Amino acid sequence: MNKIIYLAGLTLLSVLPATAQNTVVDSTATLKDQTLSDVTVTARKASVRSLSGAINGKDILRDELFKAACCNLGESFVNNASVDVNYSDATTGAKQIKLLGLSGTYVQMLTENLPNFRGAALPYGLGYVPGSWMKSMQVSKGNTSVKNGYEAMTGQINVEYVKPEDPTGLSVNLYGNTVGRFEANADGNIHINGNKNLSTEILAHYENNWLHHDGNGDGFQDAPKVRQYNLQNRWFWKKGDYILHAGLSLLKEDRVSGQTPHAAATNPYRIDIGTDRYEAYMKHAFVLNQEHATNIALMGNVSMHKQQAQYGIKQYDVNEKNAYASLMFETNFTDEHNLSAGLSLNHDYLHQTLTLPATAVPSDYGNIYPLTRGIESETTPGAYVQYTYNLHSRFIAMAGLRVDHSNVYGTFFTPRFHLKWVPADFLTLRLSAGKGYRSPHALAENNYLMASGRRLIIDKLDQEAAWNYGASLNFNIPIGNKMLKINTDYYYTHFLSQMLIDYDSNPQELHITNLNGKSFSHTFQIEASYPLFKGLELGAAYRYNLVKATYGGKLMWKPLQSRYKGLLTLSYKTPLGLWQFDATAALNGGGRMPESYTLASGERSWAGSYKAYGQLSGQVTRYFRHFSLYIGGENLTNYKQKNPIIGYQNPWANSFEPTMVYGPVEGAMAYVGIRLNLGKRQ
Fold this sequence. Notes:
Blueprint: H1 2-19, E1 34-36, E2 39-41, E3 48-50, E4 57-61, H2 62-65, E5 83-87, E6 95-99, E7 102-103, E8 107-111, E9 114-115, E10 134-141, E11 155-161, E12 169-177, E13 181-191, E14 198-209, E15 225-239, E16 242-258, E17 270-289, E18 294-311, E19 314-332, E20 337-355, E21 372-391, E22 395-406, E23 410-424, E24 427-438, H3 442-445, E25 455-458, E26 464-479, E27 482-497, E28 499-502, E29 509-514, E30 519-533, E31 536-551, E32 554-557, E33 564-573, E34 579-588, E35 591-592, E36 609-610, E37 613-623, E38 627-634, E39 669-679
Parallel strand pairs: 8-11, 25-29
Antiparallel strand pairs: 1-2, 3-4, 4-10, 5-6, 6-7, 8-9, 10-11, 12-13, 12-39, 13-14, 14-15, 15-16, 16-17, 17-18, 18-19, 19-20, 20-21, 21-22, 22-23, 23-24, 24-26, 26-27, 27-30, 28-29, 30-31, 31-32, 31-33, 33-34, 34-37, 35-36, 37-38, 38-39
């Protein structure tokens, strides 16, 4: 089956140039909607556009997201050269973002500009946002505005959902793939009594991954069986100069993994994680002076995340509560001068229980964990002020300062500065510098580590702090009647204090400890895009990561981190917009594996490094008046990491290690889906 998928994928990629045709409208053109008898011509904005302010980032719209299956947030970065999404281990299905060569813990996650998916939600939060619910996504590099807090150390990802006040309609998305995964999504809204100032919306999601798939024959499922129910209700109300957004969401997820039924007739190693999550949010905005864009806003969200997890004989339960509120004031004194100021309050509460049942276990399992019960609680009020000088959008300087006080870590200051300069129409320069902080929750954020048989040691951790500096150059070079777009950027992150997961010092232990030495990241990236002809867009990118930290007194390359990445994208849409073809090829560079140990045979337990590997994905979409059909494939090169689970023969031993994952665990996969659009919703 895998060979068939592989050949089909190569065939798909090879026919793209042959099917290329001219399109009627360039993708970057701006047109008003026009109606000609029974034919409607709809203007489409560019699917990826640079953020207009001083911060270096991209605004990714639905057209770009739908170039791949985009089942959830974690699968929305296939075409993104800056963001990597990797499995954290080979058993639980936990995923993490990597930006600027560093873990996603240093990327601030926002949903509609409200911090979200913290603590225990971090390992699986990328699967909590269905792709069809997203209207757009903003990805920013480096330190961002102080408005959203002090946590964005390497970047920020903000998700905008479809809105209740959008044109009314109903959208349905159905998806299935060859490894036993089915998804159904729906979103619909109504304007109550035909009143555009009062709207409500329902978002619904169901997911079921039911197969015991074991493509590498190690007796463990390549991906967990996941069943998820996700429901959200959102409201919009506008009266005069007052605007309200509010909503509730409920999520229930069960994921089961471990040894397949035929691999262990008795005493199988199982992983069972049950999650219940509840969220509520509200956003109030008052326009005080429209001429000067003077407004005041009060917004906040609360969440409760309850998780019960079993990893073999280990049981980890966590009940996490978070509350966040922000009061913001903003005004333009003149067209050039903007001032923003505000207050914020964040509260995190985690109640955790970790136990080993008092049952007989194999003698070589060892004393891995003691009985642990713990409460982590932190309350952090803060205030900020930010000034922006904007000279006709050609020169923008933005400076911000936050002061926050944590009942755990004390008072700390967060300065940030951004500069944008457009010396010529074809060139844009951006510079940034700033500091970021983060309060670590070692066990909750890294609970997938409990799948390992190693002894887990957690030190008392300091607050993390880092400086980040960045520079970028954007070129728009006219070639003929088309535009070649080139973007280059460089970022340097320097940690003053950091939580490190030390795989190296002792092969029998996983040690979560404080940085004792240097830790830094250098990232250089260049990307370019060019419309070869109308309708056919070609993109290419290359990124180099130099990421090192001190482990056991030695400055070493960060393990399981690819040192470079190359990306090539091709997108073609036929003249009438009926067919769309998209393909992506990625080359992920090699990297360092953690320090190994010597087996009784004299051989090393695993190789000291891994080599580069390539991946291909492609999708074909056929558009109809009220629906579209799409079919595609992922990882069409069928590359799989060899032996992603160390010691799979005896999962009860302390040599069992499923967390050293650097590449795909699953092989080639094909999928098919349908998107229905009933009404005017876009």
